[in-house]
Prior knowledge:
The protein has about 160 residues and is of the alpha/beta class. The chain has a single domain (about 10-150), classed as YqgF/RNase H-like domain (Nucleotidyltransferase, domain 5, 2-Layer Sandwich), CATH 3.30.420.140. It is about 40% helix and about 25% strand. It is globular, with a radius of gyration of 15 Å.
Amino acid sequence: MNEFRRGARLGIDVGRARVGIARCDPDGLLAVPVETIARTEGAPARIAELAEEHEALEILVGLPIGLSGHETASTTDARDFARAVRDASNRPVRMVDERLSTVSAHAALRSSGRSQRSSRSIVDQVAAVVLLQQAIDVEKSTGTPTGELLSDSQEST
Length: 157
């Protein structure tokens, strides 16, 4: 049987203007939305507060890789943001491929009858839920944590 590391986690969907935050319970049964915050200099500190409040084992930050598999300016931006979150929270941060999380979030909201305009305030949270749920499902099925652990040696070039 594959071993799942017990502990709550935060999922982070980083956008240019907003950051969506989700969390899961310690058993990884369900990812749920937490909040959307403005993408400001204070955003990493707010995520650190939430990590403390929810006693997060780790923080999973969505890594936007182009559909072709190549890194983009958004990829670099997400890594920089993840480093700021790691430094503010002093918790492990994993970068998780989020290629289709925002698309999936929009589709889920549309199917629930919400327009794109009325979904704007929550789509980032829903995208964070999607990437976190995928990550915990993969870890449960494989016994291996999802994504790449952000290390001190992975500094911006």
